[in-house]
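Researcher: Last one for today. Full complex below.
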Amino acid sequence: MDTPPVIETDHLSKHFSDDIAVADLSLRVERGEIFGFLGPNGAGKTTSMKMLLGLITPTAGEGYVLGASLGDHEVRRRIGFLPEHFRFHEWLTAEEFLGLHADLYHMERTHTTQRIQELLELVELKAHGHRKLRTFSKGMLQRIGLAQALLNDPEVVFLDEPTSGLDPMGRRLVRDITRDLRTKGTTVFLNSHFLSEVEVTCDRVAFIKEGIIVRTGSLDSLMNGELQVAIRARNLTPENCQGLTRWCRNVQVEGEQLTFKLDSEDQLPSITRYLVEKGVDVYTVQPKIMALEDLFLEIIGKSERLVDQEDPEHLES
Amino acid sequence: MRSILVITKLTIREASRRKILWAALILGVLFLTIYGLGFHFARVDLEKSMQQRSGMNIVLLHEMYNFLLLAGLYSVNFMIIAMSALISVDTLSGEINSGTIQTLVTKPLHRWQIVIGKWLGFGAMLTLYLLLMVGGTMGVVYATSGYLAPHSTQGLVLLWLNGMLFLSLSLWGGSFLSTLANGVVAFGLFGVAFVGGWMEQIGAFLGNQVAVNIGIISSLIFPCEAVWRRLVHNMQSPLVTRLGVSFFSSSSVPSQWMIVYGAAYAVVLLFSAVRRFNRRDL
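Model: Here's the assembly. Have a good evening.
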């Protein structure tokens, strides 16, 4: 029953001559998981991923991917990788580019042609197969890079900031592809500083800050099941609010808006009943799980500015 | 082997797509045309003066042809050296810098296969270029005058060795230096070898052993000029060798061991390029 993890690291670290990029990386990613590696820019996400892929030699510690030591040559047949700020030999056409990488995987020619067409369709570039990569937009390059990462039908895919530079449509496409991979049982290791990307697609998240993993866990467990509730109501008196502390914490009133935190959803009916009995007119009751952003801020520290993916100001111009 | 060939093919395709092959080919043909014209007019004048003056005999005429051929090869040697360094100076450092190397090295191939694949690709193109330029220069001389220098094949091989020396040097530099620094190193070493070669020549001519020793040391630092002077020694006529006075002649002839040293030097550079590239973080 106990299947070996797809990725396992034990106190991996990377020190550059003047700087510690990753201080202590110990993590475990199970088969079929979509694992989010979340942290601000410069936190050590890319260095960590590069160590897992054998691009960078760790200063200390050890790690295994698909049961083999980091950088193992044979295991690379079963791995896909999309680097950050993906760039490739721009003088190749999209089809030639995928063909080259298929050759490097030693894929059969007959199989290759079919697979390339499938992938071009998947990343919605079928009409551009004969165009040189030089003429591609940033978003198109990112998508052809993603196709490259999936050529060999990998067991584990490493995606480093896959949606950076993509427009909302492109981001949705990446999100859908990631979900398809989950359905197929592919493990995905996803680096991101986009909260909503991780929130929507990942099963488990590790928060990294200044080269150290600050917290790891499933989103639910990270949020401790803590519930925040917003109620819109009239005729609230300070006594009523005081009475709520029996069940709630952090009770706050702003005009008609009443907010508080709860341990369990099961307490909500009692609270509503109490308010109604006290003559309060209740209009809406909105429970919401503590937003990932709040959690992120709590874990990483308020000083870090976050980029939320859905923030329109962040969209690529 | 298959992975190596994929990289070799990629290297050649890149040179062709980026029009490097065509530029080299067209300018090479232009070089040969100009050289051919120059040689033709020189030959006409030389033959005319041979008819007018009894002092100009066939032996002297061949000495002149030999000089003109070596002058052509002197330019070709420099062009091959420059071409070898230039086409490969950016290949590792450029791909490391842009990040394109990352998707290659995470595929199921060894890093050494990338270096060797690139070496083979550039080596093949340079060999073709060499055959065009050296074969063309010798061919022009032979076709117009019927003159063939001694040890022409050896000359070809030695020029090829110089090309491979610089190709290995620039792959070695590219495995840990930036593109610019790599170029500076390649041409800096060329300069050291060049000036050292002349010091050795002049030192030998004046009988100054210190100058000769400095020249030998510079040849050990980088042996490209020694390879060239060995070529001159092999290809010039025995008469000039005896007299030791021609512009290209070697007063101090590098030994055959210098050629062995040059070949070993290229192999060690390539081996070291592989080692450095294997170890570095990408």
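Chain B has one domain: 2-279. Residues 37 and 43 of chain B are 10 Å apart (CA to CA).
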